[in-house]
Design brief:
The chain is mainly beta. The chain has four helices and 37 strands. The protein has three domains: 272 residues, no CATH class; 54 residues, no CATH class; 205 residues, no CATH class. The strands form seven sheets. Strands 2, 6, 9, 12, 13, 14 and 36 form a seven-stranded mixed sheet that branches. Strands 17-21-32-31-25-28 form a six-stranded mixed sheet. Strands 1-15-37-5-10 form a five-stranded mixed sheet, with no helix packed on it. This is ABC transporter-associated repeat protein.
Length: 555
C-alpha cells in the first residue's frame, strides 16, 4: 500500500536502542534500524527498479534538511561488516545526497543518536532525454523512543483519519517493497501526479493527467475519506465451471510447462530475486520472484540459473571458519546488492501466502549437489560479521523460519567453482490449519560457464502472472473504456474499481514487494502540508522520498 509521506509517522521503538562499537557512526549509543531485517522494527530503504526502462539516468535522492534533537546517520556495510558511507562526499550524517547509479533495491543502517521527533525534507532528481527532472519536496517524520511514539499515538487518537487502510481491504499484499507493513512513496519523476494528487513535474515535464488539480483540491477538502483502488475480476465471457471459483484462487497461477522440450534454463547475471512460495488451489508451490521486469514474475526456481561469476569472487574474512579459512577464495551473493551479481533473498509476501496461510514459512535444506561447500547466513550488526546462520551443508542448521509477510536478504557463500543444485522444501500452514509443503531446486553457476550449466538444466517456464483475486465484480459489471486490465484470462479481466464501483487505475503506482503490482492505492488527495498521525511501528518497508522515480505509462 502506498502512502503520501506526510500521512505516516515512522515510529522507532525503544528496542532499537543499542550500544554502538567504537569506530562506527553514532557511537557510543543510538537507536538503530539495521541493514538486515528485524521484524520488530522498521526496515527503511529505497528502490529505483523502474529507472532505466523509463528513460532516466542515475537518481539523486536529496535529503535537504533534518530537524531533530540529535544526529541521523545513514551507512551500509558489506557482508563482512565493513562500513561504507552512502552519501555523496563520504559523510554518514544526514542531510546529504544519495546517488543511486544502478536500478537498485537498497537497505541501510539508520542511527538516531537521541530520542524525539525528527523531520526530513526530501526530494529526488534525475535526467531524462537531456532534461533534469525534480520531484516535489516531501517531509518524512520519525518518532524515536517510547515518549515520542506515545505522543504520536495521542495524535492518532485525536484524529478521525487513519494513515493505513483496514487489513481486510487489502487484496493480498500488505507488504512493502522490502517487508510487510506499509510502502511509502510520495513522488514520481515521470511527471505523473502523486498518490495524493499533487503534481511532481518540473523543467518542462508535465503531468500525465491521472489526477488533475481540481481533483486534488476537492480531495483535500475531504481528506478524511480516503478512497482506494481495488482489483476486481470482471467476466469477459461466460466462465467455464472449472473457472467459476476463480475469485477464491491465488493471485498467481502455478507455473505451467509450455516451453519446448529440452529448452535450456535462462541465465541471471544480476537483478533482484526472492525464493518464496505460492498457494494454488490448496497446494504449496516453490517459486522464484524475478524483479528484472515490471511487473515482477514468479517462476519455477529451476527455470533460472544464477550466474555467480568474477564480480562475486572475494576472500573470506576471519569469523567464517565454519565454511572457509580467513583469506580463502570464496564466491558471495551478499546481503547488499552488487552490480553484476544476482541478488537473492527470501520472501513470504506473495498475496496467496499472505491471504491463504497463517504463521511463518519453514525452509529446509534437503541437499546441496555441488563441488564445494555452501553456507547461507544473515549479516551481523556493527562488526558482527556472521549473524544468524540460515542453513548450510557444513554441519550447521538445515532449517530456517521465515516470518509471515517478510522479505529478507541473507548471504550465500560457495567455496569452489562449479554447478550447485540447491534443493529446499518449504512448509506453511493454511488458514484451515493444514500443513502444506513444496520442494524446489535452484541452480547456481559458480565461477564457471553459466551457459553450460543452463544447457544441462531443463527449464520450467514462468507462471502466467495474473492479477490478484479480490471481490468479484458486481452482476452485470463489465470492463469500461479507460480500464487498465491486468492478468487477463479467457474468462476474466481484472480492472480497478473504487469501493463505490467507479473505474480507477490499478497501474498508476510503482511496485511492491510481492510481485511488483500495487494491490490497493490511495487515490484521494490530502490537505496541503498537513501531517497525518498514522503510526507505523514495525515491519515497515519504506520507499524513501522519490526513490521509485518512474511510474509506468499506459495507453
Amino acid at each position: 500500500v502506498l502512502h503520501t509521506p506526510e500521512d505516516v509517522l515512522l515510529a522507532v521503538k525503544d528496542s532499537a536502542l543499542m550500544s554502538i562499537p567504537k569506530g562506527y557512526p553514532g557511537t557510543p549509543k543510538g537507536y538503530v534500524l539495521p541493514i538486515t531485517q528485524n521484524p520488530d522494527l522498521l526496515w527503511p530503504g529505497w528502490e529505483t527498479f523502474d529507472v532505466k526502462r523509463n528513460g532516466f539516468s542515475e537518481v539523486k535522492i536529496n535529503v535537504r534538511d533534518v530537524k531533530g534533537p540529535g544526529k541521523v546517520h545513514l551507512f551500509t556495510q558489506n557482508s563482512f561488516a565493513d562500513t561504507k558511507a552512502l552519501l555523496d562526499g563520504g559523510s554518514t550524517a544526514l542531510p546529504g545526497t544519495i546517488t543511486v547509479k544502478e536500478p537498485s533495491h537498497v537497505h541501510a543502517n539508520w542511527v538516531f543518536t537521541k530520542p524525539g521527533r525528527y523531520e526530513m525534507t526530501v526530494d529526488a532528481t534525475s535526467v531524462r532525454y537531456g532534461k533534469t527532472v525534480r520531484t516535489a519536496t516531501h517531509a518524512y517524520t520519525w518518532a524515536v523512543g517510547s515518549k515520542a511514539i506515545a505522543q504520536a499515538k495521542s495524535c492518532t487518537a485525536a484524529s478521525d483519519t487513519a494513515a493505513t487502510p483496514a487489513a481486510d481491504q487489502s487484496a493480498g499484499d500488505t507488504g512493502g517493497a522490502a517487508l510487510g507493513g506499509l510502502n511509502t512513496v510520495g513522488t514520481s519523476l515521470d511527471g505523473a501526479p502523486e498518490a495524493s494528487g499533487e503534481g511532481a513535474a518540473a523543467d518542462g515535464e508535465t503531468a500525465n493527467g491521472s489526477q488533475d488539480a481540481a481533483e486534488a483540491a476537492s480531495g483535500a477538502a475531504a481528506a478524511a475519506k480516503k478512497e482506494v483502488c481495488r482489483p476486481v475480476k470482471i467476466a469477459t465471457k461466460k466462465a467455464s465451471p472449472a473457472s467459476s471459483d476463480g475469485a477464491k484462487r491465488s493471485a498467481t497461477p502455478a507455473a505451467k510447462a509450455a516451453a519446448p522440450a529440452g529448452q535450456a534454463a535462462s541465465i541471471a547475471t544480476e537483478g533482484h530475486f526472492d525464493w518464496g512460495v505460492q498457494l494454488e488451489s490448496g497446494k504449496l508451490i516453490s517459486a522464484l520472484k524475478d524483479d528484472r521486469s515490471a511487473p515482477a514474475k514468479w517462476v519455477n526456481p529451476s527455470s533460472i540459473v544464477m550466474s555467480v561469476g568474477d564480480k562475486a569472487n572475494t576472500t573470506a574474512p576471519g569469523g567464517m571458519e565454519f565454511i572457509a579459512k580467513s583469506g580463502a577464495k570464496v564466491w558471495l551473493i551478499g546481503a547488499t546488492q552488487v552490480p553484476g551479481v544476482p541478488w537473492l533473498g527470501v520472501n513470504t509476501m506473495h498475496p496467496s501466502i499472505v491471504n491463504g496461510t497463517t504463521g511463518p514459512v519453514q525452509m529446509h535444506l534437503d541437499k546441496v549437489d555441488g563441488p564445494g561447500k555452501m553456507a547461507v547466513f544473515m549479516s551481523g550488526t556493527f562488526g558482527g560479521g556472521v549473524g544468524q546462520r540460515v542453513f548450510d551443508n557444513v554441519g550447521g542448521p538445515t532449517s530456517y523460519t521465515v516470518a509471515a509477510n517478510t522479505h529478507a536478504h541473507p548471504n550465500w557463500v560457495f567455496t569452489k567453482p562449479g554447478h550447485y543444485a540447491v534443493t529446499v522444501t518449504q512448509t506453511a500452514t493454511t488458514k484451515a490449519g493444514k500443513k502444506v509443503s513444496a520442494t524446489g531446486t535452484l541452480h547456481f553457476a559458480v565461477g564457471t560457464d553459466a551457459k553450460a550449466v543452463a544447457s544441462s538444466v531443463a527449464a520450467t517456464p514462468a507462471s502466467a502472472d495474473a492479477a490478484p483475486s479480490s471481490d468479484s465484480g458486481k452482476a452485470g459489471d463489465t470492463a469500461q473504456n479507460g480500464d487498465a486490465a491486468q492478468g487477463d484470462s479467457p474468462a476474466y479481466t481484472v480492472v480497478g474499481r473504487t469501493p463505490d464501483g467507479k473505474p480507477c487505475d490499478l497501474n498508476g503506482l510503482p511496485g511492491t514487494g510481492a510481485d511488483g503490482q500495487v494491490r490497493e492505492a490511495t487515490i484521494a488527495a490530502r490537505p496541503a502540508k498537513a501531517l497525518g498521525c498514522g503510526v507505523a511501528l514495525g515491519g515497515f518497508g519504506l520507499l524513501l522520498g522519490a526513490s521509485v522515480v518512474a511510474r509506468r505509462r499506459h495507453g
